[in-house]
Structures are given as C-alpha cells and as structure tokens.
Amino acid sequence: MTLADAHWMRLALDEAARAAAAGEVPVGAVLVRDGRLLASGRNAPVGLHDPSAHAEINALRAGGEALGNYRLDGCELYVTLEPCAMCAGAMLHARLARVVFGAADPKTGAAGSVLDLFADGRLNHRTQVQGGVLADECQQMLQDFFKGRRSAAREAAEPLRDDALRTPAERFDALPEYGFAPRYVSDLTQQRGWRMHYLDEGPSDVAWACLCLHGPGEWSYFFRHLARVPGLRVLAPDLIGFGRSDKPKREAVHAWPWHRDLLLEWLERLQPGPLALVYSAGASELAAMLSAAAPERFMLAMAAPDGGAGAGAAWRAPFPDRGYEAALRALGPVPEGVSGPTGQQAELIAREAMGYFGP
After folding, report:
1. pTM value?
2. What does the pLDDT look like over 104-151, one tens digit per residue?
3. Phi/psi of residue 13, each to 5°?
4. Cα Rg of the chain, angstroms
5. Which residues make Cβ contacts (< 8 Å) with residue 86, sequence separation at least 6?
6. Which position among 56, 76, 82, 201 bears the catalytic label?
7. Catalytic annotation on 82?
8. Cβ contacts of residue 165 below 8 Å, gap of 6+?
9. How many whole angstroms from its chain centre is CA 239?
C-alpha cells in the first residue's frame, strides 16, 4: 500500500461516512486521474430508489460527466468495499486502468471473493486490481453500521414498560472512550420485562471471563478501559435503573437481592465459564452477595482501583431528569470524584487475572 493509495482511500471513507449519515450502507468511492481527484460517489440506492446507485456507479457517472466521455481511460477508482458484479462490469466497460478496494465482500464480491471478473481472460479489457487498502477501517465502518441497525431492530422489538423510562441513546453518543456496541436482554424471569444493557467485549471462546460490577450511580462506563484489554473477555452489565438499562420509576423495585438474582439468571444464560469478579468500591456489597450465592462461579474477586476524578458527565448521562432517578434514590447518588480505572490500572487488573487463571 502506497501513501497515495491510503490518501485516496481515506477520501473514499469520508464518502462512506456520508452514506451512513444518510441511512445508506456505508460504501464510498473516489475516481482519480493523473494524481488528481476527478469525481466521488457514495451509496444511495435507498435515497434514489435506484438499485444501480452503488458508490462506484455514482463515481463513474460523475467522472464520465466531468470528462465528457463514457470511457475513463487512465483513471483509478478507490472504493471501500470490494465491487459487486454490476460495478465490476461497469468498471471494465469504462476501461479503468486500476481498481483499489478496502474490505473484501465474501457474499457478493466480484474481484476475487465470490468470482473474479477482472481476471477473466475472455473479456477484452484488463484492469489492474488491488484489495486490502485500509481494509480494517473500511470493515469497521460497515460493522458499526450494521450493529447500529441490529440495535435499532432490537429497540423496536423490545417495547418499554409504561412504569419505566429509557434514556435516549444520544445521551451516550458523545462520551469519550466508550463507543461499544450495545447489547440487551429483556426476557429473563427476574427482569419483569425491563431491559438490561451489558457489554460483552473480547473473545467469546476463552476459558474464563471478567464480570465487572458497578456501584450506585455508576454503570459499565466505569470499566471502559478494561473492556479494551486485548485477549480479555469482559462482561459488564448496567444494573437496571442505571446506565443504558431501563429505569423503573418506583424506588421499591431497586434492592440488591433482586439485582443479585437477576445477574445470576443472566450468567446462567450466558454460561461464560469461571469468572474473575472485578467490582468498584460502590459495588462491594453486591459482589459479596454474588460470591456467597454462587461461590463455584467466581474463582477470583478483586476491587478495581479508581483512576480519580473526571467522569462526572458520564455518570449524569443516564439521568436526563429526576424522573429517571428512582434507583439513585433507593441505592445511592451519582458518585463524586470517581472515573473508573485508568488504562494502566486496567492492564494491571487483567495481568493479575490472567496470572491467576493461566494463559
């Protein structure tokens, strides 16, 4: 990959981001000739009601208009996703000199994944092809988009009880160092129909995992650095009433024994194997209750150090107004001067747990 290839692919990624903002699958393309940007395009089949309005086709159309010719001799096209058969055919027909793509498409890719039109010797034009340029970034944008779609579908499928509130998702969008794909469960017996959010980050096929418990007024944001430690599986639920979980309106609902029983049922569903129990200072009572109720599950328990002040906005984010605060009134207020473990402290927690359980 050359510096020029990376530069043009980043412009294609900018187009892909614009497509995502418009609700389209995030694929972007740019057309280059003699080292200069000639045209750009992004996915727009939904908005244009046009099945042919892929990013590549839109870039080719704009390039043809700019040159006044349907032949695009000497042009290079950069696209964030491997072209499909339709787009590959149009590229060959346009006589492109070179096609560079980012992420492979194992379902419809026509540049080597499903078929390779560019390598078919029966066709009368040869276009050079290179794949894998900024592939991880291109793939991540697609994955984030489809995760968001799945989350929206779950939201529609999990109606909110009329005796609870649900914090708007945009309250969490601007928080630094978070950005994990949301996961939800709502059909456990102990939940009574209220939805619980949780993180499940890291490899799922490891022999053991960390269960991370937050205290009153905190939520999974407390463990954001631990959730990014490579090779470590981190399960971090938002207790109902906190974080991205539903907020029952009645204070009487919120009691530690209920949270303990709900978490045990949730763990029975997940079957994560042996657990290292990592908890904030405010969650020490809940951690003790869990350990006593299921000692066979928890092989190691440790209190997570706090990195100091700095997360006040994150602790306020789940509570737009007083109506959301029944759990705070029942179990404890928003914490002061607490931010969760730093990245370095998270690494130390992971090292201690890995040392206990072995590689």
Report:
1. 0.61
2. 999 999 999 999 999 988 888 889 999 999 999 999 999 989 888 877
3. -65, -35
4. 25
5. 52, 54, 57
6. 56
7. no
8. 246, 247, 249, 323, 324
9. 21
